[in-house]
Specification:
The structure holds two protein chains of two kinds. By secondary structure, chain A is an alpha/beta fold. Chain A is 36% helix and 29% strand. Chain B is α/β, with parallel strands linked by helices. In chain B, a hairpin with a 2-residue loop joins strand 1 (93-98) and strand 2 (101-102). In chain B, helix 1 runs antiparallel to helix 2 and helix 9 runs antiparallel to helix 10 (422-435). The chains are: A alpha/beta, B alpha/beta. At the A-B interface, helix 2, strand 7, helix 3 and helix 4 of A face helix 8 and helix 9 of B.
């Protein structure tokens, strides 16, 4: 589904990704871990199409198409979803409006009819209940005045409504208490199926206790230096990153 | 550069014609009033570009145009032309003026206890003596050339009086329609609103230009709020693309009175609005909200002034602007706190979105504080749309244009959230949507 080959990228003239390779197939959940500043968030942002990154070499194909050539909205309509590490507050735009506009943008792109308001609201309310989000939230402005946990839950709610094929979760566990973490994990697990793939970018093992990855990769110095299964994450939790870095340097 | 005499000449000719036409039905006091005002105007002419208040708004584009003083017959404007500018909800009265002149056929008046409405157009001919007290007021506009012109050509407009204790449940609407004339015309409407103690009302004032109109409206509004009177006042300024608009609003507020003014500038070619409120007794409170949407080659200038002339007075001001194309917007917010006006509380914010390289905004807060123990704040911002918010919306599948329009609309709508009356708020939203199709983001699905 997603093939990243020899990806090099710069931010403000500084090279952050230095030859990253990663292949993700449908049905797989990948965790990308690594020390701070290793390029984890850069990878998520580049895949979602954020401006300010210069790709200097390599390529990314998504379902055989050149992902990097698409603008952010086309990626979203093609089924790529980024759950932000820091969801943006948008005063004056309410949640239900954004959800509906986003949902219908995808349907329109696929040549499908827009869902009528009643069916749409029914679907959203059901998913809100699943994410334990109060109904009053619908008429509130997007992320405005939300706590850290509410923002993350809102990201997962959007993901459940939009049902992407490739979900990119950027530090979704950061800033969550244990109850919020469980709800967020429940949302992510709900979406796992053989047609979908996920990349979870995370610093800690915490989220992986609840969302079990099929593959774990260590990103350091702009490249993936080690890959393994979920046991690698457990080992990183116990021993830290230094031994992997030493192993890679040898 | 045009000399004072040159710029004044067409107005002098108009003044002579009007004098001749109205001589038979003009009482002495009115003739004297008009004469004195015109003489002062002729002496000083239009504002100098060096005058601080006019620094960013030269009057030359206006001076270059010749306007006739009276409109042709107004019967060409029909109900269909004004539909979109009228409130859908029922009103206490709807007065329609076409090119400055009152139109009885388009207006709707009903009898409401405690409410007296006098249309100047007729009353100045038949019962002028009773109007003297309302129309001759001393205020601080005596050096303002546009106020002088308004008085010199005083002929049209309305006085609205509300008895003490009267609460109007339905809004009042004044609609000034401007239509295409064979020769552009100038109108100088006068609006007088006197509200008795503990009275309450909402007023919608709309300036609507029809396609092709290229006239000049120069209005003057006097508002008097007696003790504990409450007024919510929505002004929608939406003239046609080639029109000139000047308006002055002067509110005098007594103890515990509350004035909320909402100004929407969404039309016209060259627009200047001055809005003043004088808080003359303790616990008087004023709120100024404004939204200007300036595009193409429009020039829109809002000058506001709040005088805290008594202790424990409060003011709260929020103006927002969206400036695109080759538009030029000016905001000047003056707040004066007199020496004895202790515990005054004044807050002012002006936010601007600049949407194009050629757009220009000149914004200036002006605080003059002579009292100790006051709470005053002000802030002005000029910026573009938030790139992070744009990316966030696009990452959810919204196209770039849609995302921009949504964020622009949201920026504008937050001003309208401050309108208390649901009827006024809905009307304001509908008017804004005509200028900003993206102003929908907080509506129900």
């Amino acid at each position: 589904m997603l093939v990243i080959e020899n990806l090099h990228a710069k931010v403000e003239g500084r090279e952050i990704l230095k030859g990253l390779n990663l292949t993700v197939n449908a049905g797989e959940v990948h965790a990308v871990m690594g020390p701070n500043g290793s390029g984890k968030s850069t990878l998520a942002h580049i895949l979602a199409g954020r401006a300010g990154y210069e790709v200097t070499a390599g390529r990314v194909t998504y379902d055989g198409k050149d992902l990097l050539a698409m603008d952010p909205e086309t990626r979203a309509r093609e089924g790529v979803f980024l759950a932000f590490q820091y969801p943006v507050e948008i005063p004056g735009v309410n949640n239900v409006y954004l959800l509906k506009a986003a949902y219908n943008a995808v349907r329109k792109y696929r040549g499908e009819e827009e869902l009528d308001a009643v069916d749409f609201l029914g679907m959203v309310k059901e998913r809100m209940k699943f994410m334990e989000i109060d109904q009053s939230f619908l008429s509130r402005a997007v992320n405005e005045g939300f706590s850290g946990g509410e923002k993350k839950r809102n990201e997962i709610l959007q993901m459940l409504v939009l049902e992407p094929r490739l979900a990119l979760l950027d530090e979704t566990d950061s800033g969550l208490d244990i109850d919020a973490l469980k709800i967020v994990a429940k949302g992510i697990n709900q979406l796992r199926n053989p047609e979908r793939a996920m990349i979870m970018v995370t610093h800690y093992q915490r989220l992986l206790d609840y969302v079990e990855p099929d593959f774990v990769h260590v990103l350091a110095g702009g490249r993936i230096i080690k890959s393994g299964d979920r046991h690698l994450a457990l080992e990183l939790e116990k021993r830290g990153y230094d031994w992997v870095l030493a192993e890679a340097a040898a | 550069m045009t000399s004072v005499a040159e710029a004044v000449r067409p107005y002098a000719e108009n003044f002579e014609s009007m004098q001749a036409a109205l001589a038979a039905c003009t009482p002495d006091w009115l003739a004297i009033l008009r004469h004195a005002a015109f003489a002062r105007f002729a002496e000083q002419g239009f504002p100098s570009p060096r005058a601080e208040n006019w620094k960013y708004t030269p009057t030359r584009p206006l001076e270059k145009r010749a306007f006739s003083f009276n409109a042709e017959s107004s019967t060409a404007v029909g109900t269909k032309d004004i539909e979109g500018a009228l409130l859908r909800a029922s009103t206490a009265c709807t007065l329609v003026f076409v090119n400055g002149c009152y139109s009885a056929s388009l207006s709707r008046q009903s009898t409401v206890t405690g409410l007296r409405i006098t249309v100047l157009d007729d009353a100045l001919q038949h019962q002028a003596s009773q109007l003297e007290q309302s129309l001759v007021t001393s205020d601080n506009w005596e050096h303002d050339p546009f106020t002088l012109l308004n008085t010199a050509f005083l002929q049209h407009g309305v006085t609205i009086e509300l008895d003490a204790g009267t609460t109007l449940t339905a809004p009042l609407q004044l609609l000034f329609v401007s239509s295409k004339q064979s020769k552009p015309c100038a109108s100088h409407p006068r609006i007088v609103l006197r509200m008795g103690k503990h009275s309450a009302a909402t007023l919608v004032e709309t300036w609507q230009g029809l396609d092709g109109a290229d006239n000049f409206a120069n209005s003057y509004t006097q508002i008097e709020l007696a003790q504990a009177a409450q007024l919510e006042h929505l002004r929608v300024q939406r003239e046609a693309a080639q029109e000139f608009h000047v308006s002055r609003v002067m509110a005098h507020q007594q103890a515990n009175s509350r004035y909320a003014s909402h100004t929407l500038n969404i039309g016209g070619r060259w627009v200047r609005t001055d809005l003043h409120s004088r808080l003359e007794a303790p616990d008087a409170e004023t709120q100024f909200n404004g939204l200007y949407i300036v595009d193409n080659h429009q020039h829109v200038d809002n000058h506001t002034r709040i005088d805290h002339a008594a202790p424990d007075t409060r003011s709260d001001e929020l103006y927002r602007g969206i400036v695109a194309g080759n538009g030029h917007a000016v905001f000047n917010g003056k707040v004066v706190v007199a020496e004895h006006a202790v515990h005054a509380d004044a807050a002012q914010v002006n936010n601007n979105l600049l949407l194009s390289r050629n757009a220009e905004i000149d914004t200036k807060p002006e605080l003059e504080i002579y009292a100790d123990d006051v709470k005053c704040s002000h802030g002005a911002t000029v910026g573009q749309l938030d790139e992070q918010a744009l990316f966030y919306l696009r990452s959810r599948g919204l196209g770039e244009d849609e995302a921009r329009s949504l964020l622009t609309g949201a920026f504008a709508l937050s001003v309208l959230d401050r309108i208390v009356s649901p009827v006024l708020r809905d009307f304001a939203r509908a008017q804004i949507r005509l200028a900003l199709p993206g102003a929908v983001a907080m509506e129900a699905v």
